[in-house]
Amino acid sequence: MDHAVPAAVAAPPPHPTTPHSHSHTTRRSALDAMVPSVTAAAEDRADADYDSAGDSQNSFVCQFNHDSCKWECSIKTDYKSAVLQQVMDQHETKDGSRATIDQLKEFGITVYLAEHDSVDMFLLKQVVQHVSVSKSDRSKSRYENQRCLLYRDANGRLYNLTLNNGSGGLASTWKGLIVSFSGMQALAALTILTRAYACADVPGVVLKPGYLSLILGLILYEEISHVWLNTSMFVRGTPSVAAFTLLSHFDSDWPRKITIFLLALTSAMEEGSDYQRYCTLIGVGMAMILLAANLGSRAWCFMKWKPVKLGGRVTSLFAPCITLLIAAITGLIFPYMGFTRIQAGGKAAVQLVIVNCVIVALLFVASDLDVVQQFVVTGSDECDQGNVNITLGIWFAMTAITCLFAATKISPPEPHPEDADPILVEEQTSPVGYRVPNFPDFPIDPIHFGSKGLPCFSLKLEIAVGLLVSVGVGAFVVSTSLYDYMDDASDYIDQN
Known about the structure:
Layout: E1 2-5, H1 29-32, H2 40-53, E2 58-65, E3 70-77, H3 79-90, H4 97-106, E4 110-115, H5 121-134, E5 147-152, E6 158-163, H6 167-180, H7 183-192, H8 209-219, H9 221-224, H10 227-234, H11 241-247, H12 254-266, H13 274-302, H14 313-317, H15 319-333, H16 346-366, H17 370-373, H18 386-408, E7 425-426, E8 434-435, E9 441-444, H19 459-495
Parallel strand pairs: 1-4, 4-5, 6-9
Antiparallel strand pairs: 2-3, 5-6, 7-8
């Protein structure tokens, strides 16, 4: 089905290239980067095919022949892209977009169509919410969730609607953190940090929160970063990073920053004071929540659970906190399921749980040695760790059992027939997460859809109010310094 989305776009005009003439660019760099074992004959054939083909439907595919120990290159035809391009070429009229959309629907793709005269922030959020609810179910094949968001201009030309608000840079950073995330480091840190709570009732103990802030901020940066983005993408089913920027009220990684700032600020308090000890334990608790939430959100994704549906204004406002709590609980119950290699499934997943359970348990036991605690959780060596060891021992046994059963439910990845001929490509700058390569992009900046000011005030009236507010703020700040002068004048009067 296609969803007609009225749209009024405040953005620069698109590239003059029409979608009907836009095509895939065959990359010669694929041949240039090839290893020397490619034969000259194969290169000549590929060059000849490149010169003769030169259209959007063809691309070079090189496979390694184990018998001849050489790379063999051939032309690969993307059937669906070729069919779509054919339909586009046959209907190069103002009303031809209808036939193109019908062809996409025949391929099983849900098309969200935005008209040129009515795109706004409300409409974009509605599209994202609809996709999050109906097209982000990871319990289904991703080919059952195929979708695209197209923009149709006044001439009937189609474009991929994307956001030009920096979401591409955030997506690149997020993908890098996803790759470099270490489940074992996160789980080891989560368990070792619990040793600080053995000092909750020990007066005078110094836990060195500044040292902890350095460890968390530098060594465990990947493991505590972008928890709201992770929970939104994996737990709530937000379709893309661009969609997250539309729904989120926060543009920065505030949970990590607040945690590090609290520990750094606590280090400036009086050493050994109750305030420093309690604030340190609060900072450690926040760090543990971030570690558990990142593990839990990844586990939610790898176990292919359905996204959490949070509707209504109230739940939407507190959605980041609610999903953070859900992900943290999931991470405490299924911590090993947040490891990247758990996706292998089968015996490999079970082996991963067993091996990492032993490694993390050994690291936790080693952290009970005074010589280790002096460097890891400074000050905890002065506290009785008996209750912590008992609690964590039970937790290790329970989580290992739950993860072993959960690991057996993960099926090894199998190739899908559609993998050989995809019609969509993943695109994090699209509000729905995918784009059609046959169409050019039409980037818009959501800032153009921001608040237009109070409708009952004119521009001149708002400027006048702004001037009054500015003078009032300045007068208030200046008045705070007059109290000192008034106290001095009062003392002078009393003396005379």
